[in-house]
Specification:
By secondary structure, the protein is an all-alpha fold. It is built from 3 helices and no strands. The mean pLDDT is 85.
Amino acid sequence: MTSSMTLELPDDRHDRLRRLVEATGERTKAGALDVAVKHYLADLRNKEAVVDDLPADVVDDLSTPFLPLERETSVGRSRPEK
């Protein structure tokens, strides 16, 4: 089953979509969007798998407003064994 969708695109979105079609090598906007969604989800999954092992400055470099990353940090003190 296929469905159809029409998107109202302001100039800036139209330009981003055009660049996405070019960058992905897809022939259609739908194909380019599909590739972008798959990439986004895979990128998020991969980054979440390693984010806690990365230095904070690397996490900051990889984080974007569109794909924010946060590290979980625990601080504690171990007690010496007696």
